[in-house]
Amino acid sequence: MKRSEINAAIKEMETMIKKHGFEIPPFCNWTPQDWENKNHEYDEIRENMLGWDITDYGLNNFAKTGFSLITIRNGNQQLKDKYIKPYAEKLLMVRDGQHAPMHFHFYKMEDIINRGGGNILITVYNSTKDGEFADTDVKVTKDGRTYYVPAGTAVKLEPGESITIYPYMYHDFNVEPGSGDVLLGEVSMCNDDNTDNRFYEPIGRFPEIEEDEPAYRLLCNEYPQAK
């Protein structure tokens, strides 16, 4: 991705967050220059990858495949003694016409919440032992209701609605066409993008960046070490 695309995506999500009255942590507003003066008391942000995350999954077509998100809080499965939180929280934005690819998590269970905007469609499958789509009904837990749907069903979440995603449950994100950009919340167990994601089709997770203009905000994998 070009840095200019990343900067524009962050500003676009900031606007949507304000529109829906959601407040984000102060570190989400720090500039690259601010980060130069942050010492070890902010290591939790660095080591748990809190903050901005803009990805096109290495496909170089952010308008079609990708999303914008903020990790607001997170524990750390690799540093359990230092960071004991067993939970995480994210805020995501998916544009109308944008797609987040099919994947599951080996460990993490999460609730995906439509915080506002359009309607999100989440297509669900169970996984076979070898990582293929299982031709079995999928258990759906949606706002206190538990039921089963055929494999490949797109579960719709309107604003305020949520779904529980279980480990080994394939899922993707698509905005219902014409309904508008969607602001999503995620409340989950600890998040680890380096070890806990299994994409159905092999793709990247963090983009390679072409520096065509200065960074507006640093991404969660770009923070300088404390001095």
From TrEMBL:
Necessary cofactors: Mn(2+)
Catalytic activity: D-lyxose = D-xylulose
Keywords recorded for this protein, A-Z: Carbohydrate metabolism, Isomerase, Manganese, Metal-binding
This enzyme's EC code(s): 5.3.1.15
CDD domains to which the protein is assigned, alphabetical: cupin_EcSI
Enzyme class: isomerase
Pfam families in UniProt: Lyx_isomer
Molecular function via GO: isomerase activity
Family: Belongs to the D-lyxose ketol-isomerase family.
Name the record gives this protein: D-lyxose ketol-isomerase
